[in-house]
Specification:
single chain; two-stranded antiparallel ribbon; f41 fragment of flagellin, N-terminal domain; 301 residues; 2 domains; mainly alpha
Length: 301
């Protein structure tokens, strides 16, 4: 078979393109730091990398959920702490109101303080976070009523505190098909637990001048105990989310190590291959320049 200059030129161009393609591949690996740039570079490794990256994204989302839950729980604990301080002050007023030397006017003045404390406690428990009430599950400030409402009689005296919110507890997903409560059941603790009722009863006793210090202090102490129990529950949940976070952080480290072993480029080996390919490419250019014979056009020049 007769080999023409055209055939030599075509083969040379094809070989040079192949060398340039390999050079570009090595340069891309070095610039990105990854040896698997597309699935065809290693189908099995590419599948492993995609699975690991998917797992990593899921873990990061679960960690974000946990951080949001901790924020809600910390805010809830702060509200409960403030509410407990209100009830401690109310217990002090019950002690003062139980003293016989106090006259009816003085007790009525204390009753005014107690009703203010009750309003402060209700306002605190109607606190919000990112447009949602802390003690009302999935309720929006824009579309829902405040969860706790003080009802008054015709004379302006408190009757009861009613719950207008949505029952239950805010929860977040921390793993596939696993959700954990991230709040406190406001209705169960504060309304069903008759926490607010203890202040209403104290108000009525002070206003009527019939305060029995032991009875009212007992009711307020019970209310404080319920608040403490709710705070302990919130603290336990925060601790659990911390444990989950620590576990996921370790999982992220392990996944990052596996990703590194699978996709990170070996710089020493890749640089060596790049230099070798450059040498072959330059040699191909030199050989091609010598093998391809001058054409008639070259002589005409």
């Amino acid at each position: 078979m007769r080999v023409t200059n055209r055939m030599l030129t075509a083969n040379l161009n094809r070989n040079l393109r192949d060398h340039l393609t390999r050079l570009d591949k090595f340069q891309s690996k070095l610039s990105t730091g990854k040896q698997i740039l597309k699935p065809s570079d290693g189908p099995a490794d590419a599948e492993v990398i995609m699975n690991l990256e998917s797992m990593k994204r899921e873990i990061e989302q679960y960690m974000k959920n946990g951080e949001k839950a901790k924020t809600v729980l910390n805010l809830t604990d702060s509200v409960l702490e403030h509410t407990m301080e209100i009830f401690l002050e109310a217990r002090d007023k019950a002690l003062r109101g139980g003293n016989d030397p106090l006259g009816k006017d003085e007790k009525a003045a204390l009753a005014g303080v107690v009703i203010s404390l009750l309003s402060d406690a209700i306002d605190a428990c109607n606190s919000t976070y990112q447009g949602r009430y802390l003690f009302s599950t999935n309720s929006s400030v824009a579309s829902d009523s405040k969860p706790f409402e003080l009802r008054l009689d015709a004379n302006g005296d408190p009757i009861e505190v009613v719950f207008n919110g949505k029952e239950g507890v805010f929860n977040v997903e921390v793993a596939q098909n696993t959700r954990i409560d991230a709040g406190v059941d406001g209705k169960k603790v504060l309304v069903d637990g008759k926490v607010f009722d203890s202040l209403i009863n104290l108000y009525k006793g002070l206003k009527d001048g019939t305060v029995d210090a032991d009875d009212y202090i007992s009711g307020i102490t019970t209310a404080i105990d319920r608040i403490l129990e709710a705070r302990a529950d919130a603290g336990a949940k925060i601790e659990r989310f911390d444990l989950i976070k620590n576990r996921y952080e370790q999982d992220k480290i392990n996944i990052s190590r596996l990703l590194s072993r699978t996709q990170d480029v070996d710089y020493a080996e890749t640089i060596s291959e790049l230099i070798q390919e450059e040498t072959v490419y330059n040699a191909a250019l030199k050989v091609g320049a010598r093998v391809i014979q001058p054409s008639l056009i070259d002589y005409l020049k």
